[in-house]
Amino acid sequence: MKKKPLKNRLAKHVQKLPKSGIRDFFELVNQMDDVISLGIGEPDFVTTKNIRQAAIDSLNNGNTGYTSNLGMLSLREEVCKYVETHYEVSYCPVEECIITVGVSEALDLAMRAILNPGDEAIYCEPCFVSYEPEIRMAFGEPVKVECLEKDNFALDPEKLREKITDKTKLLLLNFPCNPTGATLNKQQMTQIAEIAVEHDLFVLTDEIYSELTYENRLPTIASFPGMRERTVFLHGFSKAYAMTGFRAGYACGPFEIIDAMMKIHQYAMMCAPTIAQVAAEAALKHSWDEMLEMKAEYRQRRDFIVDSLNAMGLKCFRPEGAFYVFPNITSTGLTSMEFASRLLKECNVAVVPGTAFGQCGEGFIRCSYATSIDEIKQAMTKMTQFVASL
Ligand code: PMP
Predict the structure, then answer these.
(1) Residues 6+ positions from 249 with CB-CB distance below 8 Å
(2) So what's the pLDDT on residue 195?
(3) All domains of the chain, ordered by start, with CATH?
(4) Which of 21, 70, 154, 306 is deepest in the core (most CB within 10 A)?
(5) Partners of 144 in the beta sheet?
(6) Ligand 1 centre distance from Cα of residue 128 (Å)
(7) CA 147, CA 149: separation in Å to the nearest integer?
(8) CA–CA separation, 291 and 285 (whole Å)
(9) So what's the pLDDT on residue 28?
(10) What is the pLDDT of residue 2?
(11) d(CA 58, CA 243)
């Protein structure tokens, strides 16, 4: 019998998934020397010493086994305290909180626990590269709603309303947003919450950048009327606590949802790494002030980079959160990919083409300011020369 090629025998929905556009671009960056990168969405800070020390001590004490499937109770207690203090919504650590392998796993669990094949899940574009594939991997139907420059990349509640059908089950939010840095104001959040209640939607709120909100910080949408019962609050330690490599995150939500997520987690993952859980607990207990120091530094960099981009003629709004800016490059006459490729080849500066975050990112680039101010200054000087030369 003639066999089909191996690739064609694999799961069809996986075959159809594209590889992340960001990865392709960084293959190119990695082949070059002396690149100043404004590309990576990862803090340039090393995890602070007390967090690292807690992990080292834990290993030295022989703490190398599994934890409970939901995660260490002491960590879940710290998480629920933290969420109540900073986000104004309270959860029970025993049954409404699960520790995951980053927000990445929490997103995957939540989608798989909630979606049936064919259910529509609305997400905002431009967005984190994983959202659409994650919905597809959970056999949902991704429905995008565009967040436009004229709205400072916030989600316009009316545009959301237009996308709702009788198949819509879930709304995925991420404010402050990767890649735009956009946040929602109180009126927008209130209206979005009202729409979710009216249409009985589940809401996943990816709060991974929420500590890094520089102005007008609001509590989570999970704290708005009627929202707690339908919302899964997803958060982690990668960004604000500079702990990407630890792979620690969590989800809080109503018992029924967490319990369903827990089943998938238990069979697929057992538990989040013990060492990461110990480190995460130390972060919540001891590292608030150090987190605020990093945040202050990000804020200064944001102001510098936004002013520099506008001064060189690339229109850029001042986002209130995350560590990204998303300038408009249409005045150069180049596409996002052309701009990023030429900037890389001609000036050794890496930025990410806006299209890596969805088609409506055309005409924009993402610059991360999770890079030292010296490197940002050099990058801005080179970029100014590049733009002037066009
Ligand atoms: N959500 C968003 C919006 C992100 O930008 C990222 C990482 N870039 C993640 C989730 C994944 O984070 P984690 O390291 O916690 O898996």
Answers:
(1) 99, 100, 101, 102, 103, 104, 105, 106, 208, 234, 235, 236, 237, 238, 272
(2) 98
(3) 6-47+289-389 (3.90.1150.10), 49-287 (3.40.640.10)
(4) 70
(5) 123
(6) 8
(7) 7
(8) 12
(9) 78
(10) 80
(11) 17
* Mean predicted confidence (pLDDT) in 321-332: 98
Instruction: Phi first, then psi: give them for residue 90, nearest 5 degrees.
Output: -110, 140
pLDDT given for residue 362 in this prediction = 98
Tell me which residue of 175, 219, 214, 201 sits closest to 82, measured CA to CA: 219
21: tokens are 């556009």
Phi, psi (degrees; rounded to nearest 5) at 191: -65, -40
Cβ atoms within 10 Å, residue 157: 18
In 25-54, which positions are buried (b, 16+ CB within 10 angstroms) versus exposed (e)? Answer: bbeebeeeeebbbbbbbebbbebbeebeeb
Return the structure tokens found at 99.
Answer: 């520790």
Which DSSP helix (H) or strand (E) runs through 124?
Answer: strand 120-125
The model's pTM:
0.96
The one-letter code for the residue type at 232 is V
Cβ–Cβ < 8 Å for 169, 344: no
The mean pLDDT value for 98-120 works out to 98
Check if the beta carbon of residue 89 is closer than 8 Å to that of residue 222: yes
CB 170 within 8 A of CB 115: yes
Instruction: Output the six-digit token pair for 145.
Output: 């709603």
Distance separating alpha carbons of residues 305 and 232, to the nearest angstrom: 34
Which of 180, 239, 243, 324 has most ligand 1 atoms within 8 Å of CB, for mutation? 239
371 lines ligand 1 (CB under 6 A): no
CB of 272 shorter than 6 A to ligand 1: no
Q: Is the CB of 41 under 6 A from ligand 1?
A: yes
Cα-Cα-Cα-Cα torsion 344, 324, 237, 24, nearest 10 degrees, comes to -30
